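Hey team,

Filing this mostly as a record. A colleague (T.K.) asked me to run one chain through the structure pipeline before their review meeting, and I want the input and output archived in the tracker in case anyone asks later how it was produced. No errors, nothing strange. Just documentation.

Input sequence:
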Amino acid sequence: MNEPRLSRLQASSWIAVVETYQECNRRYSAMLREFDLTVPQFDVLNAIHSLGDDALPKRIAERMLVTRGNVSGVLNRLQEHDLIVTRQTLRDRRSFVCELTPAGRKLFEAARSAAALFIEEQLSPFDADEMRNIEDKMRTMKAHLQTLDPVAIALRAKTNKEQVA
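Output structure:
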């Protein structure tokens, strides 16, 4: 059985997507560091702000598409920096809701303003039609990725390699 071969266009397209994501993430992270925030910390602050009285750790994790365990450490660090407080919920004394402190709200608003400016400047080379096209292509890529089974692909490649040997 022949091994699949990556075309130059496939390889260069994939590398362009990965390099662009990595550069975007590096620069976005650098911008947030000016506010002494990491990307996950900013995302948690944003989730707390958006969820309001429903900002339970479980809901924050769902909003961020991560596990509750991933959120716990970030919540602890934000509390240590007096950016959030927690209080028991009235519905369930075992649960707690997260709230921004006044300092947390002030920092979040400043960082959110900078994030909006960052996105605006990042996308400034593109007109509205190009941005819609980029969004469509990325959503198509994401939807397709969600149909792939990475383990099955790895096993298929291993099987192909063993058959050739």
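Quick notes for T.K.: The chain has two domains: 9-125, 127-165. The beta strands are 84-88, 96-100.
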